[in-house]
Design a protein that fits this description.
Length: 196
């Protein structure tokens, strides 16, 4: 099937915004790998669609049972990609998109998933902070943890070969256009197999 796509990058950079647009504009071409998390749902988030919202015990049990391809602790909460999440998308012959943090990127690199790795960056740390604050989803403590991870991860992203592409999300339309351009071969391949 088509190669999966990993979208990573700092919290608040715009990964969900870009991928939601991609899923809407290319319905049936892309499929989202629905992760598990122990964090609480934000207003508007649906269980089974945005995440599988689970307890720490459920998550730990799943990990112990070998149900996850990768898992990580981010800003005090557990997150993980289950084998089922990826298989469900691949069974539909869609391009599977994973929205994961840097620990996830490192762990996926140890698997045979062979995705395209894309990192989404904000134009500056100041703009990242503003976007996160304006999103109004984080406590001050969570915001500070996310910010520290963002600064560390943006530095790590420069490591040669870690990402296939780094996209600066300044103007949303421009970033989206760059993203669809990077993925044009996968889009064409998935559309061809959908039509045949
Ligand atoms: N290009 C842009 N210009 C201005 N605001 C943007 C842009 N892209 C995204 N935003 C806004 O910034 C905020 C963060 O975006 P988003 O939630 O998509 O980030 P994220 O990378 O998915 O974060 P997280 O990893 O925390 O889920 C949102 O409120 C979104 O509407
Ligand atoms: N390693 C993983 N990271 C994940 C997964 N699902 C989401 N994430 C990353 O967590 C942070 C925070 O997400 P938020 O929804 O609480 O803002 C963000 O960087 C996501 O990319 C996962 O399954 N594995």
């Amino acid at each position: 099937g088509p190669r999966p796509v990993v979208l990573s990058g700092p919290s608040g950079a715009g990964k969900s915004t870009l991928l939601k647009k991609l899923l809407k504009d290319y319905e049936g071409v892309f499929g989202f790998s629905v992760s598990h998390t122990t964090r609480s749902p934000r207003p508007g988030e649906a269980n089974g669609k945005d995440y599988h919202f689970v307890t720490r015990e459920e998550m730990q049990q799943g990990i112990a049972n070998g149900e996850f391809i990768e898992n990580a602790v981010f800003s005090g909460n557990m997150y993980g990609t289950s084998k089922m999440a990826v298989q469900a998308v691949q069974a539909r012959n869609q391009v599977c998109i994973l929205d994961i943090d840097m620990q996830g990127v490192r762990n996926i690199k140890k698997t045979d998933l062979n995705p395209i790795y894309i990192s989404i960056h904000p134009p500056s740390v100041e703009i990242l902070v503003k976007r996160l604050r304006d999103r109004n989803t984080e406590s001050e403590e969570s915001l500070q943890k996310r910010l520290q991870a963002a600064i560390d991860d943006m530095e790590i992203s420069k490591e040669p070969g870690l990402f296939d592409e780094i996209i600066i999300n300044d103007d949303l339309e421009e970033a989206y256009s760059r993203l669809t351009d990077v993925l044009k071969e996968e889009i064409a391949a998935a559309q061809t197999s959908k039509d045949s």
